[in-house]
Amino acid sequence: MDYIKIRFGDEFDRFGSHLERTLQDFFRPRPINPMFACKDCGWIPQMDIYETENEVFIWAELSGVDKNDLEVEINNKAVRIAGLRKELPKPADGAYRLAEIRYGKFERVLYLPSPVDTEVVSSNFTNGFLSLRMLKLKMQKTHKVPISDG
């Protein structure tokens, strides 16, 4: 059985600095020819977040990514999915006629709709889709506190 690396922690502050880079990537014009593409620019995989009463699910479309090139980190508020999609080998005597597939590093930080229990997480990587299943934390109930006289 193969495993995907999952790290648990509360260190998502370092990803705040990526917000500016993400906004720049969003507004940056995309090159038509990959020979002009920045190798460090990477790509942004498509992801879905689905929520039920007790669980939060994330599906990430990662076709062409090797499971060993994936990294998942989670805290009770966010999930970070990062990795690398390597370029496919091409014949040396060819020329691009259409180039739409993006290669390189990627990173997504998804803020969860509800706090989750980081100890109850399952993951699966099949046919280019990464799925994460997380159990929501039970919200603590409010208790009335009696107030005594002086």
Mean pLDDT: 82
Number of strands: 8
CATH topology: Immunoglobulin-like
Please indicate the count of domains: 1
CATH top level is Mainly Beta
Instruction: Assign the CATH architecture.
Output: Sandwich
Q: Which class do the helix and strand fractions yield?
A: mainly beta
What general outline do the C-alpha atoms trace? Answer: elongated
Radius of gyration over C-alpha positions, nearest whole angstrom: 20 Å
The helix content, as a percent range, equals under 10%
* Regions with little confidence, pLDDT below 50 for 5+ residues: 31-39
Distance between the termini: 65 Å
Q: Describe the biggest sheet? A: 4 strands, mixed
* β-strand amount: 35-45%
* Count of alpha and pi helical runs: 1
Order of helices and strands: EHEEEEEEE
